[in-house]
Amino acid sequence: MNKLELIQEVSERTGLAKKDAEKAVNAVLDTVADTLAQGDKVQLIGFGSFETKTREARMGRNPKTKEAIEIPATTAPVFKAGKALKDRVAK
Protein backbone atom coordinates (compact mmCIF):
# COMPACT_ATOMS: atom_id res chain seq x y z
CA MET A 1 0.00 0.00 0.00
CA ASN A 2 1.35 3.41 -0.90
CA LYS A 3 0.34 6.84 0.41
CA LEU A 4 -2.39 7.38 -2.18
CA GLU A 5 -3.93 3.99 -1.41
CA LEU A 6 -3.77 4.79 2.32
CA ILE A 7 -5.60 8.08 1.74
CA GLN A 8 -8.25 6.26 -0.32
CA GLU A 9 -8.74 3.66 2.43
CA VAL A 10 -8.99 6.31 5.17
CA SER A 11 -11.53 8.18 3.05
CA GLU A 12 -13.66 5.05 2.61
CA ARG A 13 -13.49 3.95 6.25
CA THR A 14 -14.25 7.37 7.74
CA GLY A 15 -16.63 8.77 5.14
CA LEU A 16 -14.41 11.82 4.73
CA ALA A 17 -13.82 13.39 1.36
CA LYS A 18 -10.53 12.38 -0.22
CA LYS A 19 -9.17 15.89 0.25
CA ASP A 20 -9.98 15.83 3.98
CA ALA A 21 -8.55 12.33 4.37
CA GLU A 22 -5.35 13.50 2.66
CA LYS A 23 -5.08 16.42 5.10
CA ALA A 24 -5.57 14.03 8.04
CA VAL A 25 -2.98 11.51 6.83
CA ASN A 26 -0.46 14.26 6.05
CA ALA A 27 -1.04 15.87 9.46
CA VAL A 28 -0.38 12.57 11.26
CA LEU A 29 2.78 11.84 9.26
CA ASP A 30 4.10 15.40 9.66
CA THR A 31 3.44 15.33 13.41
CA VAL A 32 5.29 12.03 13.82
CA ALA A 33 8.24 13.32 11.75
CA ASP A 34 8.41 16.63 13.65
CA THR A 35 8.26 14.86 17.01
CA LEU A 36 11.08 12.49 16.03
CA ALA A 37 13.15 15.41 14.72
CA GLN A 38 12.88 16.99 18.18
CA GLY A 39 14.23 13.78 19.71
CA ASP A 40 10.96 12.71 21.32
CA LYS A 41 9.19 9.34 21.11
CA VAL A 42 5.72 8.71 19.65
CA GLN A 43 3.75 5.87 21.28
CA LEU A 44 0.53 4.56 19.78
CA ILE A 45 -0.89 2.06 22.27
CA GLY A 46 -1.81 -1.19 20.53
CA PHE A 47 0.07 -0.22 17.37
CA GLY A 48 3.68 0.52 18.23
CA SER A 49 6.18 3.25 18.90
CA PHE A 50 8.42 5.45 16.80
CA GLU A 51 11.72 6.68 18.23
CA THR A 52 15.22 7.62 17.15
CA LYS A 53 18.44 5.68 17.66
CA THR A 54 21.92 7.11 17.48
CA ARG A 55 24.50 5.19 15.47
CA GLU A 56 28.07 5.77 16.60
CA ALA A 57 30.76 6.87 14.18
CA ARG A 58 32.76 3.93 12.84
CA MET A 59 35.41 2.98 10.37
CA GLY A 60 34.35 1.42 7.07
CA ARG A 61 35.97 0.49 3.77
CA ASN A 62 35.37 1.75 0.27
CA PRO A 63 34.66 -1.55 -1.53
CA LYS A 64 36.13 -0.25 -4.77
CA THR A 65 39.48 1.01 -3.49
CA LYS A 66 39.67 -0.85 -0.14
CA GLU A 67 40.54 2.49 1.42
CA ALA A 68 39.49 3.00 5.06
CA ILE A 69 36.93 5.76 5.52
CA GLU A 70 35.25 7.16 8.60
CA ILE A 71 31.47 6.83 8.64
CA PRO A 72 30.03 9.69 10.74
CA ALA A 73 27.55 9.25 13.58
CA THR A 74 23.89 9.49 12.54
CA THR A 75 20.46 9.50 14.07
CA ALA A 76 17.94 7.14 12.46
CA PRO A 77 14.20 6.69 13.02
CA VAL A 78 13.06 3.23 14.17
CA PHE A 79 9.66 1.60 14.65
CA LYS A 80 8.88 -1.06 17.22
CA ALA A 81 5.59 -2.89 16.72
CA GLY A 82 3.28 -3.25 19.71
CA LYS A 83 1.88 -6.56 20.94
CA ALA A 84 -1.58 -6.02 19.46
CA LEU A 85 -0.13 -5.29 16.02
CA LYS A 86 2.18 -8.30 16.19
CA ASP A 87 -0.72 -10.56 17.18
CA ARG A 88 -2.96 -9.22 14.41
CA VAL A 89 -0.30 -9.69 11.72
CA ALA A 90 0.57 -13.19 12.95
CA LYS A 91 -2.96 -14.49 12.31
TrEMBL record:
Domain of life: Bacteria
A GO cellular component annotation in the UniProt record: cytosol
GO BP: chromosome condensation; DNA replication initiation; gene expression
Matches recorded under CDD domains: HU
Keyword Thylakoid tagged: no
UniProtKB keywords: DNA condensation, DNA-binding
Coiled-coil intervals: none
Full protein name: HU family DNA-binding protein
